[in-house]
Write a structure and sequence with these properties.
Mean pLDDT: 92
Strand order of the largest sheet: 3-2-1-4-5-7-6
Distance between the termini: 29 Å
Number of strands: 7
CATH topology: Rossmann fold
Number of domains: 1
Number of helices: 10
CATH class: Alpha Beta
Order of helices and strands: HHEHEHEEHEHHEHHHE
Low-confidence stretches: none
Structural class: alpha/beta
Strand content: 15-25%
Amino acid sequence: MADAGSIMSIYDDYYADGKVAAKREIASKQSVGHIEAILPGETFEKVLDIGAGEGAVLDKLNKRKLAKTLGAVEISTSGIEAIKARKIPSLKSLDVFDGYHIPHSDKSFDLGLAIHVVEHVEHERMFLMEAARVCKQLYIEVPLEHTRNLNRAIRMSGPYGHINFYTPLTFENLLNTSGLKVDRLMTFAHDLAYEQHLAGRSKGWVKYKLRTEFLKVAPKAAVRNMAYMAGALCSTK
């Protein structure tokens, strides 16, 4: 079993070569869109990005003024350096953490974000309980990759560090069994820009249309057969 120190070393240079950062820059735009869909028109005093990566989401939240002040914790030192380089005006705290211990006091943030983090985490419930300790509400987003073609999902997502795979039901069960109350849960298809980044202009457009229409017409069948994303707004105890 890996300890926190070994996990930190795995992700230490995760953003150093820019390959993951390029993908996350595009993905961050759709994730911020999901936050706005599940929290329409809402703003907060203090928001904490838990597992902030290289800061793409933070940068967009700053521009959209979701919160008066932003905080961030990140396991990767290369991610921390990338966040610092962005010089985000509303970012007031930035800390390295080991994935399970957040250096902030109880309920010190109004909203915590864990966007495409939980699929990387060895001890999911430990992570979520610690996030709930620090934040009054949580927005958690994960890929829904546990489809009929799970073998392919494991093969394709492994290089990006995914070790947990979810359906809508297993994701909701994880949240409930972590002591969270799920207030809203939504399923999202990938944006056109993300599909085209992965598959090219023409093939990406076809995949975008297929995925979005399938989800509209037959949502239960869609998530059994194709990968999507789920975002959940949760209350913490």
